[in-house]
Amino acid sequence: MKAIYPVLFYEEKEGGYSVFVPDLQNKSTCGSTLEEAMSMAEDLIAGIVLDEMEENNQIPKSSKIEDITFEKLEKELNIENWEYISKFKTYIAVDVSSFAEKWGKELVKKTVNIPKWINAKAETLKINFSKTLEEALLQKIYKE
After folding, report:
1. Closest CA to 91 of 12, 19, 16
2. 84-95, strands of its sheet edge to edge
3. How far is residue 133's CA from residue 108's CA, in Å, rounded to a whole number?
């Protein structure tokens, strides 16, 4: 599933870009470079849309880009005298299905084998097997 939203970019005077998605309650992100800001906008949109889908909520409708204005955003956020170099708006398209495969909350059932004595001791201690495995895998993945 693709999600496409108009996004407002501000090139900041001190460097980097601020990014706003008006159709998603003016949620915002930023990036040091334009490429990073666009990537962050993709992640922001995909994350919000995926959360709404997983909660069985309605996905926010996308506006036409010509209906989105900088003036409206700045008024809603109560921004005055913002010093920026330039600003522009564009559409950002995101493949939410691809994002969901990587970051979705959908659970996957796995069968594991452990020694009987560890199983007995863990059950006695009321250890949550799924949570423990998830934590151990995250630790291995991110080498914390």
Report:
1. 19
2. 27-31, 17-21, 2-12, 84-95
3. 12
Q: Domains, the chain, ranges and CATH? A: 2-103 (3.30.160.250), 107-144 (no CATH)
pLDDT in tens, 12-71: 999 999 999 999 999 999 999 999 999 999 999 999 998 888 888 999 999 999 999 999
Residue type, 75: K
CB 118 within 8 A of CB 125: no
How far is CA 44 from each of CA 5, 38, 121, 134, 140, rounded to the nearest angstrom? 11, 10, 42, 24, 26
Residue (of 97, 3, 99, 106) closest to 43 by Cα position:
99
* H or E element that contains 116: helix 116-124
Closest CA to 30 of 43, 17, 42, 39: 17
Q: pTM of the full predicted structure? A: 0.71
Rounded distance, CA 32 to CA 87, Å?
15
Q: Render 29-78 in DSSP notation, one character per residue.
A: EEESSHHHHHHHHHHHHHHHHHHHHHTTPPPPPPPPGGG--HHHHHHHTT
